[in-house]
Amino acid sequence: MFTSKIIISEDFERIKEEMIEKYGYNRLRLIPKTPANDFLLDDARLVEKESYIAEIDEKIIVLMAHNFRIEAQNFLLKLLEEPPQNVKFLIVVPSKNLLLPTIKSRLICEKRNIQKSKNSLNLKLDKMDLKTLFEFLQENENLDKNELMEKITLLTEQMVKIKDFNAKELENFYESYELAKLNSKSSLILSTLLLNFYTKK
């Protein structure tokens, strides 16, 4: 029997494989089907719809994303608090700071120390001063769209591990990612993110 929980991990694929091996693919419902950069309100609505499809046996709805939109989290609150019969939830996210306190209070939290190879930022955010900030901006001023989107994802994951951000501040990370999709200039987006982080107490 599975207990609804949050798992803190960046290795979505490994968690998925573990769940399939332990509980079987037929008991899992992956929403979205593959881990997303952002878990959206539409995804939350799909979770609700799936939750109310009656099942004889227990089913586990698995939510995996690098970031969870605030409105999507708020939409899920009642569902997590009062889940339908035989429905359990697993939320997998890189940092617990990406989740609202109201979400975290409803589920147990399990941290996995899994190292996943990924491109390095080459920037120590916890020791960053203005000099290293501007050096980083110079090194990354001509990124293409995909490179910029990857940098924003990496920055977001690292920043939320170091400082606590409120709902409005978390929304800024999502907006930066959306601007990157529109081919906005990398130096402007990165400088805004880094300066906001640097000046945040």
Strand content: 5-15%
Cα distance spanning the termini:
43 Å
Poorly predicted residue ranges: none
Oligomeric nature of the chains: single chain
For CATH, the homologous superfamily of the largest domain is named as: P-loop containing nucleotide triphosphate hydrolases
If strands are numbered along the chain, what order do they take across the biggest sheet? 2-3-4-1-5
**Count of the domains:** 2
Q: What is the level 1 CATH name of the largest domain?
A: Alpha Beta
Organism: Campylobacter estrildidarum
Protein name: DNA polymerase III subunit delta
InterPro entries: P-loop_NTPase (IPR027417)
What would you note in describing this structure?
By secondary structure, the chain is of the alpha/beta class. The mean pLDDT is 90. It is built from eight helices and five strands. β2, α2 (41-51) and β3 form a beta-alpha-beta unit. The protein has helices at residues 12-23, 41-51, 70-81, 101-104, 130-139, 145-162, 167-181, 186-199, and strands at 5-8, 28-30, 59-64, 87-93, 108-111. It has a five-stranded parallel beta sheet with strand order 2-3-4-1-5, with helices on both faces. It folds into two domains: 5-111, 3-Layer(aba) Sandwich (Rossmann fold), CATH 3.40.50; 125-199, no CATH class. The protein starts with a strand and ends with a helix. This is DNA polymerase III subunit delta. It comes from Campylobacter estrildidarum. InterPro entries: P-loop_NTPase (IPR027417).
